[in-house]
Design a protein that fits this description.
16 helices, eight-stranded mixed sheet
Length: 376
């Protein structure tokens, strides 16, 4: 069921308060609208079954507003803030962002920007969920670097978002050499270590996730610092994915080629493992060793082989690959280096860059196959 947007305008300036009300109505979002002189006076009317959006003027009372926001975030779920002032100071913005993602509007109020933010919050926080609350985790893995894990993770996640417009899809970068944010040309304010800490303290992952463009695709980025990446324990991995399953229909994980305790935990959590291989002997030997390892830890049943950079005129056919690996190939992705590199350099998915290509058609097919596998 679609949640109601419950809007509180906290602004003692009657002119700007009236403008906010006018712009909210113009946004076309379904909502209830209330006005209060302070955050504290609005607390009795916060509804945990709705999405509560506070449009908060902080001018002249930044410190007290900060304390009140922290109290509300600790006590209630589904609360979002659009903070306004004629003079938004950098140090105050940084303090606000320590607990959760917030939006900021400098007065005088820019109409189009404000309406765009409200619409994004409404679509992001109130969308229908067409699944049971137990999302599916899809791990994209190869035990050798350079086989296209990130390209596949990003484009599969985007296609699943396109195929499931009323559901939320997540992509989680747990690859120590991964670059999901570069591929999507975004710069999330929070990394996984921060997000895990906030989840541990009761804050929803949705409140601090970064959304890609206008899609229902949410990005969870790894830290750029390797020493921080290695500090994500198996216990924290379990905490993270248990939380994400409650929100997202599909969760795609770009995993490092290195097998460690965190990687093993993701394998155990995953509903489907996409093991990437290529049609050349060194890669096939590595893939065979990986399949042997998976067999020892009972993962082969939920593992599907994905043949990347395949060309029909290769000396090694799909049948040859299946014979060497003693396992069927789920599907193959064609070798279209030019399209892939151009899309990456532009910060676009392949479907956005050129939907007329064979490689994009292959990703459409891959998404459909994945959805079919996870229905059983």
């Amino acid at each position: 069921m679609k949640k109601l947007l419950n809007v509180f305008i906290i602004d003692n300036d009657k002119t700007s308060s009236a403008l906010f009300e006018s712009y909210l109505i113009e946004s076309g979002c379904q909502m209830t609208l209330k006005k209060y002189p302070s955050l504290n006076s609005a607390i009795p009317y916060i509804d945990n079954n709705s999405v509560n959006l506070f449009i908060l003027d902080v001018e002249g009372h930044e410190n007290s507003s900060l304390a009140e926001m922290e109290t509300i975030e600790k006590s209630f779920k589904n609360c979002k803030f659009i903070i306004t002032s004629h003079n938004l100071k950098t140090d105050f913005i940084i303090k606000c962002l320590r607990n959760s993602k917030k939006d900021f509007i400098q007065k005088p109020i820019p109409k189009n920007s404000f309406i765009a933010i409200v619409k994004e919050i409404s679509e992001k926080m109130t969308s229908d969920q067409d699944f049971s609350g137990h999302g599916k985790v899809i791990s994209v893995f190869s035990n050798k670097g350079g086989l296209g894990k990130t390209t596949i993770s990003v484009n599969l996640a985007w296609q699943l978002a396109v195929n499931n417009p009323s559901s939320k899809i997540a992509i989680v970068d747990m690859n120590t050499l991964g670059d999901v944010t570069t591929f999507l040309d975004i710069n999330p304010p929070y990394d996984l270590t921060f997000i895990i800490d906030k989840i541990y303290n009761g804050i929803s992952a949705l409140d601090i996730a970064s959304v890609y463009e206008n899609y229902n695709l949410f990005v969870f980025a790894n830290s750029p610092y390797h020493e921080v990446q290695y500090n994500i324990s198996a216990q924290n991995v379990l905490l993270l994915f248990n939380s994400l399953r409650k929100i997202f229909k599909y969760i795609i994980v770009d995993i490092s080629s290195e097998i460690n305790q965190s990687t093993k935990q993701i394998f155990q959590i995953a509903d489907l493992i996409l093991l990437i291989t290529e049609a050349n002997l060194p890669v096939l030997n590595n893939t065979k060793r990986c399949l042997d390892f998976f067999d020892k830890i009972n993962l082969n049943q939920k593992t599907q082989l994905l043949l990347n950079r395949y060309s029909y005129d290769d000396d090694c056919s799909i049948h040859d690959v299946e014979t060497v690996l003693c396992k069927n190939i789920l599907t193959g992705l064609p070798n279209d280096w030019k399209t892939v590199m151009n899309s990456v350099n532009k910060g676009l998915t392949i479907g956005e860059y050129n939907p007329e290509t064979d490689i994009y058609a292959s990703y459409v097919e891959l998404a459909q196959l994945v959805m079919k596998k996870l229905c059983h």
